[in-house]
Design goal:
Helix content: 40-55%
Number of helices: 10
Largest sheet: 5 strands, parallel
Low-confidence stretches: 45-55, 76-95
Strand content: 5-15%
Strand order of the largest sheet: 4-1-7-8-9
Number of strands: 9
Protein backbone atom coordinates (compact mmCIF):
# COMPACT_ATOMS: atom_id res chain seq x y z
CA UNK A 1 0.00 0.00 0.00
CA UNK A 2 1.30 3.47 -0.90
CA UNK A 3 2.77 5.64 1.85
CA UNK A 4 0.28 8.23 3.04
CA UNK A 5 1.00 11.78 1.86
CA UNK A 6 1.46 14.69 4.25
CA UNK A 7 -1.05 16.80 2.36
CA UNK A 8 -3.76 16.32 -0.28
CA UNK A 9 -4.36 19.17 -2.71
CA UNK A 10 -7.69 18.78 -4.55
CA UNK A 11 -7.87 21.18 -7.48
CA UNK A 12 -10.35 22.93 -9.68
CA UNK A 13 -8.80 23.83 -13.07
CA UNK A 14 -10.39 26.84 -14.76
CA UNK A 15 -9.41 30.16 -13.18
CA UNK A 16 -7.60 28.21 -10.44
CA UNK A 17 -4.80 26.50 -12.38
CA UNK A 18 -5.59 27.63 -15.93
CA UNK A 19 -6.62 31.06 -17.18
CA UNK A 20 -9.76 30.41 -19.20
CA UNK A 21 -11.05 33.98 -19.61
CA UNK A 22 -10.32 34.05 -23.36
CA UNK A 23 -11.04 30.38 -23.97
CA UNK A 24 -13.77 30.55 -26.63
CA UNK A 25 -13.56 26.80 -27.51
CA UNK A 26 -14.31 25.88 -23.89
CA UNK A 27 -17.01 28.53 -23.54
CA UNK A 28 -18.72 27.57 -26.81
CA UNK A 29 -18.39 23.80 -26.67
CA UNK A 30 -21.85 23.18 -25.21
CA UNK A 31 -23.47 25.61 -27.65
CA UNK A 32 -21.84 23.73 -30.52
CA UNK A 33 -22.90 20.37 -29.10
CA UNK A 34 -26.53 21.45 -28.74
CA UNK A 35 -26.61 22.76 -32.31
CA UNK A 36 -25.17 19.58 -33.85
CA UNK A 37 -27.20 17.15 -31.76
CA UNK A 38 -30.54 18.92 -31.45
CA UNK A 39 -30.49 21.54 -34.19
CA UNK A 40 -31.26 24.52 -31.96
CA UNK A 41 -28.95 27.45 -31.44
CA UNK A 42 -27.89 27.88 -27.83
CA UNK A 43 -29.40 31.36 -27.75
CA UNK A 44 -32.85 29.78 -28.01
CA UNK A 45 -32.44 28.27 -24.53
CA UNK A 46 -33.36 30.31 -21.43
CA UNK A 47 -29.95 29.34 -20.00
CA UNK A 48 -30.16 31.08 -16.64
CA UNK A 49 -33.45 29.37 -15.77
CA UNK A 50 -32.40 25.82 -16.62
CA UNK A 51 -28.74 25.54 -15.64
CA UNK A 52 -27.53 24.73 -12.11
CA UNK A 53 -24.76 27.32 -12.26
CA UNK A 54 -23.92 27.56 -8.56
CA UNK A 55 -21.72 24.46 -8.59
CA UNK A 56 -22.00 23.46 -12.24
CA UNK A 57 -19.94 20.63 -13.68
CA UNK A 58 -19.81 19.43 -17.28
CA UNK A 59 -22.27 16.69 -16.39
CA UNK A 60 -24.78 18.88 -14.53
CA UNK A 61 -24.78 21.42 -17.38
CA UNK A 62 -25.25 18.67 -19.96
CA UNK A 63 -27.96 17.00 -17.85
CA UNK A 64 -29.88 20.27 -17.46
CA UNK A 65 -29.65 20.97 -21.18
CA UNK A 66 -30.68 17.40 -22.03
CA UNK A 67 -33.66 17.49 -19.68
CA UNK A 68 -34.84 20.80 -21.09
CA UNK A 69 -34.40 19.64 -24.70
CA UNK A 70 -36.33 16.42 -24.11
CA UNK A 71 -39.12 18.31 -22.35
CA UNK A 72 -39.45 20.40 -25.50
CA UNK A 73 -39.46 17.29 -27.70
CA UNK A 74 -36.23 18.32 -29.43
CA UNK A 75 -33.55 16.00 -30.69
CA UNK A 76 -35.30 12.66 -30.26
CA UNK A 77 -34.00 11.35 -33.59
CA UNK A 78 -30.47 12.13 -32.41
CA UNK A 79 -30.80 10.33 -29.11
CA UNK A 80 -29.09 6.99 -29.82
CA UNK A 81 -26.24 7.75 -32.21
CA UNK A 82 -23.36 10.08 -32.85
CA UNK A 83 -22.49 10.57 -36.52
CA UNK A 84 -19.65 13.00 -36.17
CA UNK A 85 -17.74 14.50 -39.09
CA UNK A 86 -14.40 14.39 -37.25
CA UNK A 87 -13.98 10.61 -37.61
CA UNK A 88 -10.55 10.40 -36.03
CA UNK A 89 -11.92 12.01 -32.87
CA UNK A 90 -15.05 9.90 -32.58
CA UNK A 91 -15.73 7.98 -29.38
CA UNK A 92 -18.02 5.05 -28.68
CA UNK A 93 -21.75 5.68 -28.83
CA UNK A 94 -23.19 6.96 -25.56
CA UNK A 95 -26.44 5.78 -24.02
CA UNK A 96 -27.86 9.08 -22.83
CA UNK A 97 -28.35 12.48 -24.38
CA UNK A 98 -26.40 14.10 -21.54
CA UNK A 99 -23.39 11.92 -22.28
CA UNK A 100 -23.80 12.61 -25.99
CA UNK A 101 -23.71 16.35 -25.32
CA UNK A 102 -20.50 15.94 -23.30
CA UNK A 103 -18.97 13.85 -26.10
CA UNK A 104 -19.72 16.50 -28.74
CA UNK A 105 -18.47 19.23 -26.42
CA UNK A 106 -15.20 17.35 -25.82
CA UNK A 107 -14.63 16.78 -29.53
CA UNK A 108 -15.32 20.42 -30.34
CA UNK A 109 -12.87 21.56 -27.66
CA UNK A 110 -10.16 19.21 -28.92
CA UNK A 111 -10.56 20.35 -32.52
CA UNK A 112 -10.48 24.05 -31.78
CA UNK A 113 -8.61 24.39 -28.48
CA UNK A 114 -5.99 27.12 -28.40
CA UNK A 115 -2.99 24.84 -28.88
CA UNK A 116 0.05 26.41 -27.25
CA UNK A 117 -1.97 29.40 -26.04
CA UNK A 118 -3.01 28.18 -22.61
CA UNK A 119 -1.89 30.28 -19.66
CA UNK A 120 -1.33 29.38 -16.02
CA UNK A 121 -2.93 31.31 -13.22
CA UNK A 122 -0.32 33.19 -11.16
CA UNK A 123 1.25 31.03 -8.49
CA UNK A 124 -0.44 27.78 -9.56
CA UNK A 125 2.70 25.92 -10.68
CA UNK A 126 4.65 27.05 -7.62
CA UNK A 127 1.87 25.92 -5.26
CA UNK A 128 1.60 22.52 -6.96
CA UNK A 129 5.37 22.12 -6.66
CA UNK A 130 5.34 23.17 -3.01
CA UNK A 131 2.73 20.52 -2.16
CA UNK A 132 4.92 17.87 -3.80
CA UNK A 133 8.00 19.27 -2.02
CA UNK A 134 6.48 18.79 1.44
CA UNK A 135 5.47 15.20 0.66
CA UNK A 136 1.95 15.90 -0.53
CA UNK A 137 0.01 14.89 -3.64
CA UNK A 138 -2.35 16.71 -6.00
CA UNK A 139 -5.65 15.49 -7.42
CA UNK A 140 -7.69 17.17 -10.15
CA UNK A 141 -11.32 17.49 -9.13
CA UNK A 142 -12.97 20.03 -11.43
CA UNK A 143 -16.25 20.24 -13.27
CA UNK A 144 -14.49 19.29 -16.52
CA UNK A 145 -14.99 15.94 -18.16
CA UNK A 146 -12.05 13.58 -17.66
CA UNK A 147 -10.74 14.05 -21.19
CA UNK A 148 -10.90 17.85 -21.20
CA UNK A 149 -9.32 18.09 -17.74
CA UNK A 150 -6.46 15.89 -18.90
CA UNK A 151 -5.89 17.80 -22.14
CA UNK A 152 -5.97 21.20 -20.41
CA UNK A 153 -3.30 20.21 -17.88
CA UNK A 154 -1.22 18.46 -20.56
CA UNK A 155 -1.23 21.68 -22.63
CA UNK A 156 0.13 23.57 -19.63
CA UNK A 157 2.78 20.96 -18.92
CA UNK A 158 1.26 20.36 -15.48
CA UNK A 159 -0.23 16.88 -15.74
CA UNK A 160 2.88 15.30 -14.18
CA UNK A 161 2.17 17.24 -10.98
CA UNK A 162 -1.12 15.37 -10.49
CA UNK A 163 -1.86 11.75 -9.70
CA UNK A 164 -2.42 10.29 -13.16
CA UNK A 165 -2.03 7.38 -15.56
CA UNK A 166 -1.55 6.96 -19.32
CA UNK A 167 -4.40 5.76 -21.53
CA UNK A 168 -4.60 5.17 -25.28
CA UNK A 169 -7.36 7.24 -26.93
CA UNK A 170 -8.39 8.21 -30.50
CA UNK A 171 -6.34 11.37 -29.87
CA UNK A 172 -3.22 9.34 -29.06
CA UNK A 173 -1.79 8.53 -25.59
CA UNK A 174 -3.18 10.92 -23.01
CA UNK A 175 -2.20 11.14 -19.35
CA UNK A 176 -5.54 10.79 -17.59
CA UNK A 177 -6.10 12.03 -14.07
CA UNK A 178 -6.84 9.91 -11.02
CA UNK A 179 -9.79 11.03 -8.93
CA UNK A 180 -13.23 12.23 -9.93
CA UNK A 181 -14.46 14.51 -12.69
CA UNK A 182 -17.40 16.48 -13.97
CA UNK A 183 -19.19 13.45 -15.45
CA UNK A 184 -19.64 12.00 -11.98
CA UNK A 185 -21.94 14.36 -10.11
CA UNK A 186 -22.07 17.73 -8.43
CA UNK A 187 -18.91 19.47 -7.28
CA UNK A 188 -19.31 18.46 -3.63
CA UNK A 189 -19.98 14.86 -4.73
CA UNK A 190 -16.84 14.65 -6.85
CA UNK A 191 -14.77 16.11 -4.00
CA UNK A 192 -16.21 13.38 -1.74
CA UNK A 193 -15.46 10.71 -4.35
CA UNK A 194 -11.86 11.91 -4.62
CA UNK A 195 -11.47 11.77 -0.83
CA UNK A 196 -12.86 8.22 -0.82
CA UNK A 197 -10.57 7.20 -3.68
CA UNK A 198 -7.48 8.59 -1.93
CA UNK A 199 -8.44 7.14 1.47
CA UNK A 200 -8.84 3.70 -0.09
CA UNK A 201 -5.52 4.03 -1.91
CA UNK A 202 -3.60 4.96 1.24
CA UNK A 203 -5.53 2.74 3.64
CA UNK A 204 -6.63 5.49 6.01
CA UNK A 205 -8.89 8.52 6.22
CA UNK A 206 -6.93 11.37 4.64
CA UNK A 207 -9.63 14.06 4.93
CA UNK A 208 -7.75 15.63 7.87
CA UNK A 209 -5.04 16.84 5.46
CA UNK A 210 -7.12 17.56 2.35
CA UNK A 211 -7.73 21.07 0.99
CA UNK A 212 -9.73 22.14 -2.04
CA UNK A 213 -8.42 24.90 -4.33
CA UNK A 214 -11.17 26.77 -6.19
CA UNK A 215 -12.15 30.17 -7.53
CA UNK A 216 -15.94 30.47 -7.23
CA UNK A 217 -18.22 31.05 -4.25
CA UNK A 218 -19.92 27.78 -5.19
CA UNK A 219 -16.58 26.06 -4.60
CA UNK A 220 -16.63 27.26 -0.99
CA UNK A 221 -20.09 25.73 -0.56
CA UNK A 222 -18.92 22.48 -2.18
CA UNK A 223 -15.85 22.26 0.08
CA UNK A 224 -18.01 22.95 3.13
CA UNK A 225 -20.47 20.21 2.12
CA UNK A 226 -17.54 17.82 1.63
CA UNK A 227 -16.20 18.77 5.07
CA UNK A 228 -12.76 20.05 4.03
CA UNK A 229 -11.05 23.46 4.00
CA UNK A 230 -10.59 25.54 0.86
CA UNK A 231 -8.11 28.02 -0.56
CA UNK A 232 -10.52 30.38 -2.30
CA UNK A 233 -8.72 32.30 -5.08
CA UNK A 234 -10.77 35.28 -6.21
CA UNK A 235 -9.87 39.00 -6.28
CA UNK A 236 -13.43 40.05 -5.48
CA UNK A 237 -14.58 40.71 -1.93
CA UNK A 238 -18.35 41.07 -2.38
CA UNK A 239 -20.38 38.10 -3.68
CA UNK A 240 -23.81 39.04 -2.40
CA UNK A 241 -25.18 38.64 1.11
CA UNK A 242 -25.75 34.87 0.97
CA UNK A 243 -22.29 33.99 -0.30
CA UNK A 244 -20.62 36.61 1.88
CA UNK A 245 -22.18 35.05 4.99
CA UNK A 246 -21.11 31.51 4.07
CA UNK A 247 -17.56 32.59 3.15
CA UNK A 248 -17.18 34.70 6.29
CA UNK A 249 -18.39 31.84 8.50
CA UNK A 250 -15.92 29.42 6.92
CA UNK A 251 -13.07 31.92 7.30
CA UNK A 252 -13.96 32.39 10.98
CA UNK A 253 -13.78 28.61 11.43
CA UNK A 254 -10.25 28.69 9.96
CA UNK A 255 -11.53 26.49 7.14
CA UNK A 256 -11.29 29.05 4.32
CA UNK A 257 -8.36 31.15 3.13
CA UNK A 258 -9.54 33.87 0.73
CA UNK A 259 -6.72 35.26 -1.44
CA UNK A 260 -6.55 37.22 -4.70
CA UNK A 261 -3.84 34.98 -6.14
CA UNK A 262 -1.93 31.83 -5.25
CA UNK A 263 1.20 33.98 -5.09
CA UNK A 264 -0.03 35.28 -1.72
CA UNK A 265 2.44 34.13 0.98
CA UNK A 266 -0.47 33.09 3.22
CA UNK A 267 -1.18 30.13 0.89
CA UNK A 268 1.94 28.19 1.89
CA UNK A 269 1.35 28.98 5.57
CA UNK A 270 -2.19 27.62 5.24
CA UNK A 271 -0.85 24.44 3.59
CA UNK A 272 1.80 24.02 6.30
CA UNK A 273 -0.80 24.37 9.06
CA UNK A 274 -3.02 21.66 7.58
CA UNK A 275 -0.30 19.20 6.55
CA UNK A 276 0.53 16.29 8.84
CA UNK A 277 3.67 14.29 9.49
CA UNK A 278 3.44 10.69 8.32
CA UNK A 279 6.95 9.70 9.37
Amino acid sequence: MAKSPNFIGIWDIDQTVRDSTEDWPAINRFANAIYHIIGHRFGEFPEQSILSLESATDFTVAKDLANFALQQGWGESYYHSINFEWDKLSFEKRKTLAETIITYADLFFNKYKRAGLSFEMPGARDTLDYILHIGGVNYECSGNSELIASVKLEDLGLSSKFQSFLRKTPLGPIRYLSGSHGEQGSRSEIIGQTLSYASEKYGEDISDRAVYFGDRPGDVIAAKKAGIPIVFINPNIDFGSRYNRIITEYIEQNKCLHVSTLKDTKVKSFIDRLSVSTV
